[in-house]
Amino acid sequence: MNIAKELLKGFKGKAGKILGFRSATLLRITPGTRTPGAAASGTNPTTTPYPCKALISLATAANVPSAILVQQDDRKISIFGASLPSGIVPRINDKVTIVDIDKVSKTLRLIAPIQGDGTGAMFEFTARA
After folding, report:
1. Which pLDDT band, with edges at 50, 70 and 90, does 41 fall under?
2. pTM of the entire structure?
3. Which residues contact 35 (CB under 8 A, 6 or more apart)?
4. Hey, what CATH topology would domain 3-34+42-128 get?
């Protein structure tokens, strides 16, 4: 049995919508290289989008480790591992575009991991605009 796929399947439907289950896009920004002959110019970073499924909720002192100072608009993002392409694991400073709890599409930066489940079924992060 694939735990990651079973977890994802369990959140589809009406119950998932109530719990904040949404389509999202993980954005991985990779640093580029300097343009040859222009050492003073900046780099040309590349952004790669990865469609995924995620849960979103308010980040609170109760659902985020005490080492993280939670700000008013912080969110807890839980990304389903089975919804990501093979080999893609969310990491700090990746961004997620998702419809927020106020029903507005926002791009949030992953600032700190909350916990992993050890199987890659779910990746939880504190996210900030």
Report:
1. low
2. 0.81
3. 41, 44
4. Thrombin, subunit H (2.40.10)
